[in-house]
Amino acid sequence: MEKIITVNKLTKKFKKFTALNEISFDVEKGEIFGFLGPNGAGKSTTIRILTTLLTPTAGSATVAGFDIIKEPDEVRKHIGLVAEKIILYDHLTAMENLEFFGGLNHLSGQEVRNRCERWLKRLGMAEWLDSQVGTFSTGMKQRINIARALLTEPAILFLDEPTLGLDPQTTYMIRTFIEELNKQGTTIILTTHDMIEAEALSNRVAIIDHGKITAVGTVEELKKTVKNKKNPTLEDVFLTVTGFEVRDVAGKVQPQSNGGHGHGPMGGGSKGG
């Protein structure tokens, strides 16, 4: 398989704290790659580096064949980012939001409108095209957020907790959409704390903990590493690799097995992870 992302000994230090410690992995073209880890493990730092929002301290990576340090502009042309924090303007309509972000990506006129209408239709939001985003539910806003990331029709889509806090119906709809998008050739990098979601969607999974990659493989390959359970799940794999200790990050205490970025046209802010 052709590698669309390569990561080689990537390291990121913040003063005395090492967020990433020489991590290496590859993502194959056309796969859904689950990138999992406890709070504060290094997930968000990795995603921010791969989307050119953060510069690594050492190591290298290529995305869509382009060096993230030497060719960041080329990298950005081939990626879309759905960050955990939704960045939309409440006083604008769905279409106005998408036209604005399309403009940041040098799209304009009928081209951007056609793309907006197409993605909103596919995400079940066509009838809300001219409604103010401030009146939308969280699930509706997230669908607009996904449409925004797809305006450039990227080869690679980064999804950071795409169904966090959503109702079951919207969650099901977005998961189905992710699968359909992937079948059409889009490579997807998925970060989530929802092990059921990760197991259902991912072709392969990498688990990161304390800034190091601790496991990489298909879900079935990783399940075989759990020796004390008859029919292990991905959650069993995750807890075996990372432990059962509850992680406390930035004042928020969450169990590891449950989970529920810079700024720019790709996305907004994100908490550490």
Characterize the structure shown.
- The protein has 273 residues and is α/β, with parallel strands linked by helices.
- It has a domain of 184 residues: 3-Layer(aba) Sandwich (Rossmann fold), CATH 3.40.50.300.
- Helix content is 33%, strand content 26%.
- The chain has a six-stranded mixed beta sheet with strand order 6-7-8-3-9-10, with helices on both faces.
- Strand 4 and strand 5 form a beta hairpin.
- The protein is globular and about 55 Å long.
- The protein starts with a strand and ends in a 19-residue tail after the last strand.
- The C terminus is likely disordered.
Would you summarize the structure shown here?
The protein has 9 helices and 12 strands. It has 273 residues and is α/β, with parallel strands linked by helices.
Features:
single chain; about 270 residues; alpha/beta; Rossmann fold; 6-stranded mixed β-sheet; 4-stranded antiparallel β-sheet; 9 helices; 12 strands; disordered C terminus
- Largest sheet strand order: 6-7-8-3-9-10
| E-strand count | 12
Classify the fold: give the CATH topology of one domain. Rossmann fold
Helix and strand string, N-terminal first? EEEHEEHEHHHEHEHEEHHEE
The unreliable regions are 251-265, 267-272
Helical residue percent band: 25-40%
Q: Which range does the strand content fall in?
A: 25-35%
| Name of the CATH superfamily of one domain | P-loop containing nucleotide triphosphate hydrolases
CATH architecture of one domain: 3-Layer(aba) Sandwich
Indicate the structural class.
Answer: alpha/beta
The largest β sheet comes out as: 6 strands, mixed
> For the residues shown, what is the average pLDDT?
90
